[in-house]
Design goal:
about 750 residues, 6-stranded mixed sheet, Ubiquitin-like (UB roll), 29 helices, Hypothetical protein af1432, 5-stranded mixed sheet
Length: about 750
């Protein structure tokens, strides 16, 4: 391939001056050749044919990046080689190693995806494309660009997990060389790594990479704290060397005398983990007792529990510090026994006991699919690691097209702390800590979540917002006519549940807004003398096309929804439609025009709409005045909020009418309404035992539905004000309720509150 004279570069690379290009190119070739030789030594697990394909990808990448250097002065090709080396350590296949070598080719070297398909096949090209930032995407902000990049990367990852493995290898090498970049860039890159890439690594079980990314981020975000803590750990290591050696010798002696073949390794807590523990629990360094521990690797699953028994015989276990992650694996596939023992001199020592297969999964997570091919009862099939979460990314994408919203949903699931609960058939499910019954329902199936009406935990009915605890057995009760409640969004924990609820509400709101928009436009047309709105037949296709060009909408239903949401004014659209109809000879009906437009006062009236309470999300009743049937009302078409109904004397509505009168429409109550409407009442009472129960009984006797009670924050006095939000049928029902309250014992006065905060 011919390299362009001027290549786009990353932050960490730049072009070599032309005067030194020849000498620098020779040096670069020598350095790259040496680096590739080191990579070749790691590829011995591949066939000769695969190694040759990797070599071709290296030559292509080397030529593409020729002339580029990193900020530390090394040839740029050393970066792709380092990324490929990490992938080789994970024993990824030839396609993944090739993609690692080519991962910056599209972004930095004017190489196209079709060119990669032609040279290396569609599989490699798809991997590279999944890793490529969306530089050519038209976005408004840097944050939006970043969110869209992550969305694309994560969706590519859900389809092929090798994408994220290569990306994590890329980020790991960039973090190792971050010190070569200007210091002002450290904070942004390290924060991004700590907030996004490290949690993804942990979520997929790549614990070794997770710890390295955390420590490198910590080092560049807080250099002084990092260095201080590192020195403290070094000193502690020296002080406790004798103790650690003694523990290891005693443990080895116990296993040797029992005839069990084990391998024992020392384990040191990462600096970032120590820092987070000190910061979160307000501890001094001396108070952190689990800095050092041991990892015991045994041959079989049964040996894990045998080894645990031997350790508990040697040292006393610390109560409450035993965890069996073998019987119940973590959500990222991690399996191990954890126990903390009281060692010599009263020092607490943590032990982790696992098999070799579990150890591979614990350190490498999803990469264990390539590293450890055997499926044993101890380790279990590694093909499914992370599959549930990866599939959830595709499910969320189905409902969420906005990149920033997608990323918000995904971030919710990036925390591995989990609770383990059971279905009635004893199937175990892992959910994030703080997950509720509704999260559980959506984890089973989106249809179950959408139709949820109640739930039982341990056989007892519980509220849907109930947070789940380890070991809970949950039974979800559904109903065919049920639908998601917007209030669920205030307590659901998982991204899957949140995206499913929002998708359903958006779909429902769009349909209702479209229906409302159709009614508003039809009434506006009648006010202009047109009896019936043009249909969607071929006769009126041209009319609708012209109208849509005028409004800027793509389709008729989109225009109607915009009218219902207040983004378009029905009267203006109607006038344009009348003009278009007049061009084809359809004139307004003069009689209808007179009857609809003018009343007894001979003044123009805006289009009216009858409300019966069935409008749901498309019509909102303002909380500032809480109108109920019988009140004089006005309707305000908020921008993107749909129709908002106020009482005619509401101060908020009067201010809006003064500023934005063209957005008001005439509304009235239907002859019969289909539900209760909320309003506020204030009850002044004499304080005494059971007074709240008496007031509530009076309200219940009046068939008023209590939806909210506010007793205020004032200290107990002789009198108190109770503020209720109640559901009533109409003004007459409210007056009956107030009369009943005023007759109740202990009630001084009961009134309707016109404005609530």
């Amino acid at each position: 391939m011919n390299t362009p004279a001027s290549l786009p570069t990353k932050d960490s690379s730049k072009l070599i001056p032309n005067a030194r290009a020849g000498a620098a190119r020779a040096a670069a070739e020598n350095a790259a050749a040496a680096s590739f030789a080191a990579l070749t030594a790691r590829l011995e697990y591949l066939s000769a044919a695969d190694i040759e394909l990797v070599r071709q990808a290296y030559r292509f990448a080397d030529e593409a990046h020729l002339g580029q250097i990193r900020s530390n002065g090394e040839p740029y090709i050393t970066h792709p080689i380092s990324v490929a080396a990490q992938c080789a350590d994970w024993r990824l296949d030839a396609q993944a190693v090739m993609a690692a070598l080519l991962h910056d080719a599209i972004e930095d070297c004017a190489v196209t995806k079709p060119e990669l398909i032609e040279r290396f096949g569609p599989a490699v090209a798809e991997l590279v494309d999944g890793l490529t930032k969306l530089d050519k995407l038209h976005v408004n902000t840097r944050e939006e660009n970043q969110a869209e990049s992550f969305r694309k990367m994560l969706l590519a990852m859900a389809r092929d997990v090798r994408v994220i493995l290569i990306k994590l290898a890329d980020r790991s090498h960039n973090m190792r060389t971050l010190s070569d970049l200007p210091r002002e860039k450290w904070g942004r890159i390290a924060s991004e790594t700590l907030d996004i890439y490290a949690p993804i690594a942990h979520r997929l079980g790549l614990n070794q990479t997770y710890r390295e990314l955390q420590d490198l981020s910590f080092q560049h975000l807080f250099p002084w704290r990092f260095n201080t803590l590192r020195k403290a750990v070094d000193k502690a290591r020296n002080r406790r060397r004798d103790l650690i050696q003694r523990v290891q010798k005693e443990v080895e002696g116990v296993f040797s005398s029992s005839g069990m073949a084990v391998r024992i390794y020392g384990r040191e807590k990462s600096l970032y983990s120590i820092y987070k523990k000190m910061d979160g629990k307000h501890l001094s360094f001396a108070q952190v007792t689990d800095i050092y521990g041991f990892r015991v690797l045994v041959p079989t699953l049964i040996d894990c529990y045998t080894a645990l028994g031997l350790l508990h015989q040697l040292y006393k276990p610390l109560p409450g510090k035993f965890k069996d992650h073998i019987a119940i694996a973590k959500v990222n596939g991690y399996q191990s026994l954890h126990t903390t023992l009281v060692g010599p001199s009263g020092v607490n020592v943590e032990f982790q006991v696992r098999t070799d297969a579990m150890h591979v999964v614990a350190e490498s997570g999803v990469a264990a699919h390539w590293l450890y091919k055997e499926n044993t009862s101890a380790g279990g099939p590694s093909d499914g690691l992370g599959a549930q979460w990866l599939q959830s990314l595709l499910d969320i994408q189905d409902e969420t097209r906005d990149a920033a919203e997608f990323w918000d949903h995904v971030k919710v699931d990036l925390f591995p702390d989990a609770v383990y609960v059971f279905t009635p058939k004893s199937q175990i499910m892992a959910l994030p800590r703080g997950a509720t019954v509704v999260d559980f329902a959506y984890a089973i199936h989106s249809n179950v979540g959408d139709r949820t009406v109640a739930a039982k935990v341990g056989g007892e009915l519980v509220p849907l917002r109930t947070e789940l605890k380890n070991g809970d057995v949950i039974e979800v009760i559904t109903a065919p006519v049920s639908a998601p409640n917007p209030a669920w969004l205030t307590f659901v924990r998982t991204g899957r549940a949140r995206s499913k609820i929002r998708h359903h509400l958006k779909t429902m709101a769009h349909a209702e807004s479209e229906e409302l928009g159709g009614k508003l436009l039809a009434k506006a047309l009648r006010a202009e003398g047109i009896e019936n709105m043009p249909d969607e037949s071929a006769d009126y296709t041209g009319i609708w096309d012209k109208l849509l060009r005028f409004t800027g909408n793509k389709a008729r239903n989109e225009l109607l929804a915009d009218i219902g949401l207040g983004k378009r004014i029905a009267n203006i659209v109607a006038k344009k439609l009348v003009t278009l109809l007049a061009e084809r000879g359809e004139k307004p009906d003069a009689v209808l025009l007179t009857r609809e437009r003018f009343g007894e006062t001979d003044t123009p009236s805006l289009t009216g709409l009858a409300l019966d309470g069935s409008e749901n999300a498309s019509v909102q009743f303002a909380k500032c005045c809480r109108p109920i049937p019988g009140d004089d009302i006005v309707g305000y078409l908020g921008r993107g909020e749909g129709l908002i109904v106020h009482t005619a004397n509401c101060p908020t509505a009067q201010k809006l009418q003064h500023k934005d009168s063209e957005r008001f429409i005439q509304v009235e109550w239907a002859d019969e309404t289909v539900r209760l409407f909320e309003t506020g009442i204030s009850v002044m009472v004499t304080n005494g035992k059971g007074v709240l129960a008496k007031v509530a009984s009076a309200l219940a006797a009046s068939e008023a539905d209590i939806t909210h009670i506010d007793m205020g924050q004032e200290p107990t006095q002789t009198t108190a004000e109770l503020r209720f939000i109640v559901g009533v049928r109409d003004v007459a029902h409210l007056e009956t309720t107030l009369r009943a309250l005023n007759r109740a014992k202990s009630v001084i006065r009961a009134d309707r509150t016109r404005v609530t905060t």
